[in-house]
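Our collaborator T.R. sent over the components below with a one-line note: 'Predict the complex.' Nothing else. No constraints on interfaces, no templates requested, no preferences about which chain binds where. So this is a plain run: every listed entity goes in together, and whatever single assembly comes back becomes the starting point for the next discussion.
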Amino acid sequence: MPQKPLHPPDDQLLLWLDGELRSAEKAELSAHLESCWTCRARVQALESTILDFVRARNQALDPALPSIAGPRALLRARLEQDLAKTAPPRIWGMVRAAAVCFSLAGAFLLLFEFRVRADGPQPDATLTPGEVRPISLDQVCRNSQAEVVVANIPDDTRRKVFMAYGINPAKPGDYEVDYLITPDLGGSDSIRNLWPQPYAARWSAREKDRLEQRLHQLVCAGNLDLATAQHDLAGNWIQAYKKYVPTQTLQR
Amino acid sequence: MAQTSSLLARFATERVASSPAPSRLEQDVVALFEQLRNPLLRYLRSLRIPPADGEEIVQETFLLLFRHLRAGKPRDNLQAWLFGVSHNLALKYYSRAGRENVESPGLSDRPDFAPNPAERLEMLELQQNLLVVVDALPAQDQRCLALRAEGLRYRDISRILGISLGSVANSLSRSLARLAHRAGEGKV
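Returned assembly:
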């Protein structure tokens, strides 16, 4: 007696339609659909429901959308304003370029393995531009305050970070391999979000931890949006510290 | 949609190290705005954000995108990035004092849409019924459905909403079952 075919549940059919099944499951279900008229009819019904929903939704929403012309012009103006606000003056750019060349030469001669400035350690933007993972505000604010992350970073990754920054492997204890954007604010585990921060520097890892806690507090109180907090951490964190951490705790 | 895909693909393939000049970047961001502004507005509408505030959130989202790209940050899957940022800005909007009780009509209530008799005939009762079902879904299910309708993959929806992949699949399946049930009733 032929075995009665097992029909897949609706959620499997939807996953198949949406291309979300793993290849083995997909092949199995495709084979089943080739042989099963009932399930093909169910797939068609599912597609028909999706079609009806999308059509109804678009008919309800699209006529209510205002023309794009005004918002597009506004966006252009805002982008230009943002550019003008953040672009350094040309002369300043040249001065800065000269200063960078000078300091790089000095650093190479004196501390060729030490690519993080002791008086204001900043990550190298080409090595550590900062990277985030998608995260919701609910997830960010699940803990009442940001944990001081004792980075559980594999030794192999630490070694790669030290190597990228040209730090002598004999001295890794002088540094904390730190997240540029803390995971509590959506920072990723990628090496592009990790850098060696010296403990002994004037602006140390402890200050950065304090800043991260303060930003977490502001974001979860609704006083700062998450994207701005991430942006400011990935930029100049010392400036961000001066901007966000109350002055009474600033003891420098 | 094909245009959007090719634009997103171009963003993803350009190397971060060779970030385009600001004017070129500006043009690219505006081009992406032209493609994705309406989908984002529709999503924000499903979060019950009033239209004018939705427009402002979309503006802010693209301004953040501009800064994100200028800083040479990752540019793969910018569609999911944009929806994620808009979603977070919408949550922030709700968390601000005095906005907890924002009353914005659902999909089935359209004060700005007054169909004439001919349109009323055209507007299938079935479609109106479906919108009523959508409005009655739990908020999270509405968000899943709206993000999927805008072409996001399950993994992106799961990241944006902070739920598991299984929860996304269950939510969509549950919502479609309700819609199918209502559609079945309407067709009888």
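Summary for T.R.: Residues 22-46 of chain B form the longest helix (25 residues).
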